[in-house]
Design a protein that fits this description.
The complex is a heterodimer of chains A (about 325) and B (about 90).
Chain A (H helix, E strand, L loop, with lengths): L15 E3 L9 E7 L9 H14 L8 E5 L3 H13 L2 E7 L4 H9 L3 E5 L4 H15 L4 E2 L7 H17 L5 E5 L4 H13 L4 E6 L2 H4 L13 H5 L2 H4 L2 E4 L2 H13 L6 H16 L3 E7 L16 H9 L5
Parallel strand pairs in A: 2-10, 3-4, 3-6, 4-5, 7-8, 7-10, 8-9
Antiparallel strand pairs in A: 1-2
Chain B lengths: L1 E5 L13 E5 L3 H11 L18 E5 L2 E2 L15 E6 L5
Parallel strand pairs in B: 1-5
Antiparallel strand pairs in B: 1-2, 3-4, 3-5
Classes of the chains: A alpha/beta (about 325), B alpha+beta (about 90).
Bound molecules: pyridoxal-5'-phosphate.
The site of pyridoxal-5'-phosphate (PLP) has 15 residues of chain A, from helix 6.
Chain lengths: ~325, ~90
């Protein structure tokens, strides 16, 4: 089928490409699922659609509703797309230190941006959104960090698609933000084959956040607690900006134009390939490269790009 | 045996503003106990009163989160880098 009645029907069913040319171990295949192919440009279109349709089913969302969401960009962009098509209004709490393309995409689809301090990272956006929601209980707060429709989008969508395209998978490696991707895909794959290993890759986000007063201001996504994420994950590794950008460039060498967190995920997949004897590592490129062109990620001197990447949120 | 420990911004005031300090031990548990002995201001911040890892603290050996290795029993080798980071919202 190639004629669709709504752009929302284009969400999901993304392709997977063999990236074994980048594997450091000839006995390990690496396959990448290209989430940048979604109509809003990222994996978060799935989450946005699942959360909105769940809220519609529960009667929380009605014509004319206003949505409120903290997001470093992609969930906001996905929600902006879904809200535009379905006729809702959207306010996104966005840290100031995201790429200008993320802001523009939000504005293109009519979202209103409420800025939170860059020095507080995504933590600050979550905190401000909670405060605004307390002041405006009439705004519908889907709250991706606590909404079970977030991992469910991956349990019902991303996971089964991976299993269908690559049942040989032995390891699943993905970025950790809200943890929705890892919880949903990880659980689905382990149910099909308990031997599948699940690896999380994270940016050194706690390094960026210097607005933290004490460790008691820390944050663990409620979905990660509720769904026992710590028991599901087999390993969690930090990948810094330099390695992420190097791998984003390697992806481009095999023709894959993906965002900086995809470079982090590939770097994690490569580390995994290095320590196992043989296997098939599946990873996720969470978005396309378009929103990062302003960082000069592919063209500028790597030291300059790394410095710039340290100052923005690319997850 | 001594290893380098990288401190997050929020713990640096307890170590006279240093970013990297030295600590002793063959396991992560020993390293963190030695850290708290040298910088008592960190007690309660890194390890809780019952000696377990504070829930909003992530500790890494060469970038691997010790919660998914052998937790506080995770071994460290000379030359390893231990990093402490606060758990914050990602994404
Ligand atoms: C570009 C990018 N990569 C990775 C992630 C992490 O995905 P998740 O929130 O499912 O953990 C996100 C979102 O948080 C993202 O926007």
């Amino acid at each position: 089928m190639s004629l669709y009645s709504s752009v929302l029907e284009l969400i999901g069913h993304t392709p997977m490409v063999d990236a074994s040319a980048l594997s450091p171990n000839p006995s390990v295949r690496i396959c990448v699922k290209l989430e940048g192919q979604n109509p809003g440009g990222s994996v978060k279109d799935r989450v946005a659609l699942w959360m909105v349709e769940q809220a519609e089913k529960e009667g929380l969302l009605v014509p004319g509703s206003v949505l409120l969401e903290p997001s470093s960009g992609n969930t906001g962009i996905g929600l902006a797309l879904v809200a535009r098509v379905k006729g809702y209004r959207l306010k996104v709490v966005l840290p100031t230190n995201v790429s200008p393309e993320r802001r523009q995409a939000l504005e293109m689809w009519g979202a209103q941006i409420i800025e939170s301090p860059g020095s507080e990272g995504s933590n600050g956006a979550v905190r401000l959104a909670m405060k605004l929601h307390a002041e405006h209980p009439e705004w519908v707060f889907l709250y991706q960090y606590a909404n079970h429709a977030n991992p469910l989008a991956h349990y019902e969508g991303t996971g089964p698609e991976i299993w269908q395209d690559c049942p040989e998978v032995t390891h699943f490696v993905a970025g950790l933000g809200t943890s929705g991707t890892l919880l949903g895909v990880g659980r689905f794959l382990k149910e099909q084959n308990p031997a599948v290993q699940v690896w999380a890759v994270e940016p050194p986000a706690g390094e960026l956040v210097d607005g933290l007063r004490s460790l008691d201001d820390g944050y663990i996504p409620p979905i990660f607690q509720d769904l026992a994420g710590a028991d599901l994950l087999d390993r969690k590794t930090i990948i810094g900006p330099r390695e992420s950008i190097e791998w984003t460039r390697r992806l481009a060498e095999i023709g894959v134009f993906a965002g900086i967190s995809s470079g982090s995920a590939l770097a994690g997949a490569a580390r995994c390939a290095q320590v196992i004897e043989s296997g098939v590592v599946v990873t996720v490129a969470a978005d396309g490269g378009w929103k990062y062109l302003s960082t000069g990620a592919w063209t500028d001197d790597i030291d300059d790009v790394v410095e710039r990447a340290r100052r923005i949120i690319y997850f | 045996m001594s290893v380098e420990v990288r401190l997050p911004t929020v713990l640096r005031p307890h170590a006279a503003g240093q970013t990297v300090v030295e600590a002793e031990g063959a396991t992560i548990g020993e390293v963190l106990e030695s850290l708290v002995r040298s910088y008592p201001g960190m007690s309660g911040q890194v390890l809780t009163d019952d000696g377990s890892l504070h829930r909003f603290v992530n500790v890494y050996v060469n970038d691997d989160d010790v919660r998914y290795l052998d937790q506080l029993q995770t071994k460290v080798q000379p030359g390893d880098t231990v990093s402490i980071l606060p758990a914050v919202a990602g994404g």
